[in-house]
Amino acid sequence: MRRLKLAAVAGALLILLGTVTTARAQEVDFTGQWVPIFHEDGPERLPGPEIADYTGLPINEAARLRGDTYDPDRISAVHEYQCRQHAGDYGMRGLANMRITAELDPVTQRFTQFRTRIGFHDAERTIYLDGRPEPPPNAPHTWGGFSVASWDGSMLNIRTTHLKAYYIRRNGIPASDSRTFTEHWVRHGNILTVVTVIEDPVFLTERLVRSQSWALDPGQTMGSNWCDTAPELVLEPGKVPNYLPGANPYLREFAGWYGLPYEATRGGAETMYPEYRAKMPQTFSTLDRCTRYCQCMNVGGGCGLGVQPAPVARPAPTPTPTPARRPQ
Amino acid sequence: MKHTLLRPTSLGAALAAAGVLLFGASHLRAQAQVSVLPVQGRVSLMTAGDANVTVQVGRSGVVLVDTPPADLAPQVITEIRKLSARPIRHIVQTSASSDRIGGTVALLGPAGARGLALGAGLFGFGATGASRPNVAAQDNVLNRLSATTPAVAPGLLPTMTDFLPTLDLFNDEAIVLYHVPAAHSDGDSIVFFRRSDVISTGNIYTPGRYPVIDTTRGGSVNGLIAALGRVLELAVPEAFEEGGTKIIPGRGRVGEETDVAEFRDMVSIIRDRVQDAVTKNQTLDQIKASKPSRDYDAEYRATPADADRLIESIFKTLPAPPPTAPAARPGSARPTGGRS
After folding, report:
1. pTM here?
2. CB contact residues (below 8 A), chain A span 193-252, against chain B
3. What is the largest CA-CA distance in chain A?
4. For the ranges B150-154, B204-208, B320-324, the one whose mean pLDDT is highest
5. Contacts of B261 in chain A (CB under 8 A)
6. What is the pLDDT of residue B331?
7. Contact by Cβ (8 Å): B202, B188
8. Rounded to an integer, what distance in angstroms lies between the CA atom of residue B29 and that of residue B31?
9. How near does any CA of chain A get to the CA of B299, in Å?
């Protein structure tokens, strides 16, 4: 009996050792030059989001009001914001090319750091794999935040804290400095897919999960993207561009341009899942042609609005039953 | 059934172990209540409880901006001793608020002569023959504290005051106190350590919580916004709005220029909303009921009472709206669409 137990323990240890060895062998080299692919959420990521487009965001009332009262002059005319880098979570939306480098332990030759450099405003992050502890709570927050990572087979899981306040969407939907985000990096040949999961206890009612992909581009060269502030508007001292609650005249434009019910553009977790189609107000109309950013995602297509003929509205189709909400 | 009795030796060992555990827990708690974070150059942040004390170390000694809660003063002194064996030369009081000055007496002693800072060698100061540290503040801090009934301990009173916009100190680097009028109170100073490139703001900047505008001591919302603007004028980021000047708040984490800008924006935007309501002749109760800070309350961890307090202090200190102007000619005014 005792021999049997010993054999079982030895067997378990061998299996465990084998697993660890396998996991080590699956470490993936993410280094290289990467170019973003804009097949997901292209209009939001390239020309930028429309004012009051909150679709797909599990925001709460506070975030919605912040979006409604947001004046875009705030990030262009207030000089403290002019040269901001993108925050680490927003930067991974892939607005610019990226270079990933790594540092290896000289003895074990295992990765101890990955470093990303994204072209827009020279945004650099370091992702530590050496198990170092987080900075204390009173330490300064940064755009890139503090990132530690671990392997899950060939997938790199990264957790980032200590981020500065920023925005989740560049139309005033805020991201608090209490948020954290997790990334999952997966490489399929020359394609890198990054899934980001943002948790913001201040502005989100559930996790915001998004993905974006990059293609390996060894011939890419990255320049420097220096920025100096410059006065763009004369602002009265202490005044910050903003709309008073209820006074922003542009909130319904997005719904009109895209033929959506206004309520569906207001965001919130309840609007994000298929069953909402059956519940939402049936006040929308479909458009007979694309009128905004129509060529933007096509190869060689520009992202200018151009002059388009007015859309012809058609009556709303009868809603069809949708599958039950998937478990989260 | 076998009964096991604790023998005296076992009991003693158990008590000793419990004692060690209790001592350890108490020691750990004290350690947890005072933490030290090197910030930049010669400046460190000492967080005592939830109050921040700025510590600068130079050849002349130690400069403190604000003091810890009195009961944590011994631990703070212990931590200061780890940074420097030299005496405390200056204590800057950034305002007369109790959370800024409460530990002054504990550090200096009731008479201001032989407290912990000079404490008979207990903390390594006594043999130096050092003179009493200067307690520097804006004039109104002295005026406020002198007028307090019952009288405050003499050791609490500033010994070095100024009515000019700035007051200069030096300790291996220029240390400039800027008076920012009518902000959190009428006696606020911000302290700029020029070579270290660190600003200590006192109560005008409290990230993660709403500012307290002390209307009973001359604070005002527009003064607060101007004071935050002064911090922003002095702060210079290294690149891309990151790095460069570090800013130590009265409470909360160390910030940089954009962190202060976010805070200033919050105050300014809520001020605009209250101002708009005042212009529409709404009463304070009506304004509170409309919750003009509702999209900021969670970010600044404000209870309904905190939010009401902020709204009330803004309401009380806004300038009266100008008399109604005659109607503008059609087309003569720039349409703003409610922009403020």
Report:
1. 0.85
2. 202-203, 226-227, 237-249
3. 86
4. B204-208
5. 78, 80-81
6. 41
7. yes
8. 5
9. 6
